[in-house]
């Protein structure tokens, strides 16, 4: 199944380029933010870095991809972040830098999925975060 078949996110708000590896309880994805990304114009001129909220969103989208592969009845609906804990930013991401994201499913109760995420680049930790997503119908 392709990324676009698995999650509802679309350009310009799709922050996963491809799935590298996946098991029932973990996923490894990849993203490279190109220097042409619009947010680099203002964050920050002369010293552009990817905003932390976008780094976090990339991990959330990786978690949504893992949710979509669970093939459970409660996974109908939109994956929505319901809780964020222990976000730690250790290094910055600059234009044209490739990152690898690993998200592990720690637990699942009903339509709630509990994840631990880690983003790395060239062997360095960029960020870690714990988050919960729910499959929500409107």
What does this molecule look like?
This protein has about 140 residues and is α+β, with helices and mostly antiparallel strands. It has one domain (about 5-135): Thiol Ester Dehydrase, Chain A (Roll). The protein is about 15% helix and about 45% strand. It has two helices and six strands, in the order αββαββββ. It has a six-stranded antiparallel beta sheet, with helices on one face. β5 (about 110-120) and β6 (about 125-135) form a beta hairpin. The longest helix has 17 residues, at about 50-70. It starts with a helix and ends with a strand. The mean pLDDT is about 90.
Helix count from the secondary structure assignment = 2
Output the CATH topology.
Answer: Thiol Ester Dehydrase, Chain A
Mean pLDDT across residues: 91
Give me the CATH superfamily: Hotdog Thioesterase
Span of the ends, CA to CA:
24 Å
Overall shape: globular
Order of helices and strands: HEEHEEEE
Q: Catalogue the unreliable spans.
A: none
Which descriptors apply to this entry?
Thiol Ester Dehydrase, Chain A; alpha+beta; 138 residues
Task: Write the topology of this structure.
Elements: H1 3-6, E1 18-22, E2 26-32, H2 52-68, E3 78-89, E4 98-109, E5 112-121, E6 124-136
Antiparallel strand pairs: 1-2, 2-4, 3-6, 4-5, 5-6
Short description:
This protein has helices at residues 3-6, 52-68; strands at residues 18-22, 26-32, 78-89, 98-109, 112-121, 124-136. The protein is an alpha+beta fold and 138 residues long.
């Amino acid at each position: 199944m392709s990324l676009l078949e698995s999650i509802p996110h679309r350009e310009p708000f799709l922050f996963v380029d491809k799935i590298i590896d996946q098991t029932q309880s973990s996923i490894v994805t990849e993203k490279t933010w190109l220097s042409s990304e619009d947010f680099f114009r203002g964050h920050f001129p002369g010293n552009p870095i990817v905003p932390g909220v976008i780094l976090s969103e990339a991990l959330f989208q990786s978690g949504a991809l893992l949710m979509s592969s669970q093939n459970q009845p409660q996974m109908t609906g939109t994956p929505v972040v319901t809780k964020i804990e222990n976000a730690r930013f250790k290094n910055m991401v600059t234009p044209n830098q490739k990152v690898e994201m690993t998200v592990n499913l720690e637990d699942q109760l009903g339509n709630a999925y509990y994840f631990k995420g880690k983003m790395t680049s060239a062997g360095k930790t960029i960020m870690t975060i714990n988050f919960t997503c729910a499959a929500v119908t409107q």
